[in-house]
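@here heads up, posting the sequence + SMILES for the adenosine-5'-triphosphate run so it's all in one place. Ping me if the SMILES looks off, I pulled it from an old spreadsheet.
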Amino acid sequence: MLALDVQELQKTYANGVEALKGVSLQVEEGDFFALLGPNGAGKSTMIGIVSSLVNASGGDAKVFGASVVNQRSLAMSYIGLVPQELNFNQFEKPLDIVVNQAGYYGIPRRVALPRAERYLKELQLWDKHDKPARELSGGMKRRLMIARAMVNEPRLLILDEPTAGVDIEIRRSMWELIRQINESGTTVILTTHYLEEAEELCRNIAIIDRGEIRENTSMKELLSKLDVETFVLDLREPLRELPACEDMEIVMRDDYTLEVTLSRAKSLNALFGELDRRGLHVISMRNKSNRLEELFIRLVDKGEAA
Amino acid sequence: MSTSLNWVGYTTIVRKEIVRILRIWGQTVVPPAITMSLYFIIFGNLIGSRIGQMGGLDYMEFIVPGLVMMSVITNSYGNMVSSFFGAKFGRHIEELLISPLPNWVILAGYVTGALVRGLLVGGVVILVSLFFTDGLEVQHPWITLSVLVMTSVVFAMAGMVNAIYANKFDDIAIIPTFVLTPLTYLGGVFYTISLLPEFWQKVSAFNPILYMVNGFRYGMLGQSDVSLATVYLVIGLFAVVMFAACMFLLETGRGMRS
Ligand SMILES: Nc1ncnc2c1ncn2[C@@H]1O[C@H](COP(=O)(O)OP(=O)(O)OP(=O)(O)O)[C@@H](O)[C@H]1O
Ligand SMILES: [Mg+2]
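bot reply: prediction finished. Complex structure tokens:
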């Protein structure tokens, strides 16, 4: 069963901006799906249409078979949404915000109260449940929106940059929570600009750019397309002269740092041998950038050239 | 399933609105109590004692229904327009827009919230009036109540139309200042239209608030410038028009769904 089936979605805003130019996309039930793209690519617009906040100019989206256009109420009952921008009443209390949201999905208070408590605790917000929401920190506000989105136990959870502005520790605990949510059977769609987040969490991925899909494949498949990789090597002894190795592009950052770019089919052994011969020790080695990041930039650059 | 969805959704909105009214009680309940006390002191006591009778009633008594109606109208309208526009402005209206709730439930929930505020304030004004009169005997309780509720509902819906069209906070003050207040003052709160020259009587006949105030005064005191049938007809007509306008605007998502 498809959790989300987006068909030829188009959106032209009132100001004439063509945000989506016929986007089609499928997300299987149970998937953990990344929707990536540069600023202004149309991610939030697509999410807006799926969650009925934005009216489509053409096409349709089906949530578990229910059309967002023709069966709005049914389609919405499946979704939990964490929007990109804060959109709760800053004067209300977190507990009220979450319990009221449950009410809008027909969940009575006596069921909603313990559920809200559970999610607020999981998101480390319980000690603030009775304070006006405006007193929460930026990261806490984002977590509050996750608790709110989970209270109707949605079959499809859509997160539009949930970890923007959240500290590293909390981000990791949010990843853990979202992963658990996904493992318990909820389909998750995530947008983010932290590509290591997408690589860490997601199984399938679509890259959207200027209102069009550039890539739509599995994370594995996509990463295997990356044909070259760049490593950074830190040396214990200073380097006098650049080592020459076939099929590698070697750049000296400074006396102690080398950057090596090579095809993924090739091995680094030749370089290590050469360094060894000169009595140089490699004390650490890392990827120059996240692999997905590399790919992303290439794909988006290609779009730019086209 | 959908009956319980709609019912739970409705009660949630109403509850949230009541919490809001009580949270900001200093802006919702206190001001009308103060303003109306002033009206009673100045118009009822000081000036009223010189006027004597109006429409066969003690002037102080005469203005009570009008002032109650005036408060109910301003507060029902005001509650809707500030709460709904606030929700739009703060974007938390999106909490409802992404939910499975049909638009009529959203409308009903907000209207009930505005009705609660209207009745609460109306009750406060009646309480205040008891300090200035020797107690009022309500002549026709059902007429009193039905005119009160229907008027509150009509102005709540009018407030929603205003809130949907409004783009900034200034836009929610224009109609109350330039339309509601003049129509209310000219709607027979302080005088019977039989005092007006014939021409102005005819003009007044186009003022819907006149019918509401008179219907309510008839319910409370048994005195009216217009027939009861016209009262219900006018209020009913406005209710239908406002309901259609609200539903149309909510369905198109104007100002809410881009
Ligand atoms: N309400 C709106 N009215 C007019 N244009 C809009 C509106 N919302 C978005 N746009 C435009 O539509 C395009 C796509 O915007 P969208 O918010 O979908 O991008 P995004 O992929 O979510 O970007 P980001 O990563 O910055 O959140 C942009 O050019 C944007 O300026
Ligand atoms: Mg966005």
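MO: The interface with chain B takes residues 13-14, 48, 51-55, 72-74, 76-77, 79, 81, 83, 85-92, 96, 100-101, 103-108, 148 of chain A (CB under 8 Å).
MO: One more: Residues A 43-44, 84, 160 surround magnesium ion (ligand 2) (CB under 6 Å).
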